[in-house]
Amino acid sequence: MEPNRREFIKQCAFQKFCNTVLHNEACDAHKELHRHKAKEITFSDLTLEEARQLHTFDEYFKGETAFERAGKKITPKLLLEAIRTLPEEKRKAVLLYYFEGMNDTEIAELFDTSRSTIQYRRTSSFELLKKYLEENADEWDEW
User: Fold this and answer.
1) Is the whole-model pTM more than 0.85?
2) Among 60, 68, 112, 125, which is disulfide-ready with 90 (CB 3.0 to 4.6 Å)?
3) CA distances (Å), 9 to each of 18, 55, 68, 97, in order?
4) Does residue 6 sit within a domain?
């Protein structure tokens, strides 16, 4: 039984097409790598001005007053110290809720406790924070 010549020609043509596509893709990838390598610069080769453009400074705490309540200035440093005075479980609840954007249910799952416990820890922290800020607001005028 003789193989069908037409099928054989189709298979050869398809194989040649596939080889051409793969060859072209390999060439393109090689050229792309070569282009990237030509553009790469080590940090030690950068000028001082170029190196300064690669970083930024956090200026969040540069302002003197975060806000003012009842004639007392609440600075970011004072607020940080107030949060540090909280008991650990309350501090974690406040930080995760307000600074990490987690909700009470997510925090409760993280600490394997109930949502209402986390809500209590978070809301009861406000009285402690308020008391600390009222007592110490006038002592923290630096920054």
Assistant:
1) no
2) 125
3) 14, 61, 85, 68
4) yes
Query: What is the distance between the alpha carbons of residues 71 and 85, in angstroms, rounded to a whole number?
Result: 23
DSSP 53: T
pLDDT in tens, the chain (143 residues): 466 888 889 899 999 999 999 999 999 999 999 998 888 888 888 888 888 888 777 665 565 555 666 677 777 788 888 899 999 999 999 999 988 888 999 999 999 999 999 999 999 998 898 888 888 876 644 44
d(C-alpha 88, C-alpha 94), whole Å: 10
Start-end of H helices in 53-142: 76-84, 88-98, 104-111, 115-136
Domain that holds residue 70: 65-139
Count of domains forming the chain:
2
